[in-house]
Amino acid sequence: DSSMQINGLKHIVLYIVLYIVLYIVYCIVYCIVHKAVVSTQSTGKLYGEVIEMDSQSHDAYIELGALCRGTMEAVAVYDKFPFSSELTFDDAFIFGEMVQILMKKEEFDDSRLEKALTGYGSVMGWNSLGNYVTTLENAYKTKILKQIYCAVNKKSPEDADVQHYFKVKLW
Asked: What tens-digit pLDDT sequence spans the chain (171 residues)?
């Protein structure tokens, strides 16, 4: 009878030790996650301050957007960048990040998609938009495609060559 009590006590002690180990692991994971969240929030706040001081800093917008990890919040950050009329490769990078997120989330009716595709295509050329154009064609978004094509190529929608292109593309 006493051996059964000893075995029972061993099991109780084992469960207590297991519980304590699991609790310690939980606490460690919680601390790591909490530290990462606090660190990300602090970093985001610092980038926000940099943006306030120098709103033309591509790097601050890029890094702050990267902290948002492919979310619509990142698109909102990138969209706040004050683009000039003369676009650069840094501008194209920001536009490209917006395009990737919006396309991945299938936000085809978001007005920022047209802006981003136009900006990206203006710097990198119409052919750089190939996969995105195909995706939009498959989603029957011909109106936005026409607007982007004209803006990127700096042509009027009434231009004869443009009209011919639209007919060939079945837009």
From this structure: 666 677 778 888 888 888 887 777 775 666 556 555 545 566 666 666 666 776 788 888 888 888 888 899 999 999 999 999 999 999 999 999 999 999 999 999 999 999 999 999 999 999 999 999 999 999 999 999 999 999 999 999 999 999 999 999 999
Mark residue 66 as left, alpha or beta (left: phi above 0; alpha: psi -120 to 50; beta: remaining): alpha
3-state secondary structure 80-107: CCCCCCCCCHHHHHHHHHHHHHHHHCCC
Residue 67 structure tokens: 């902290």
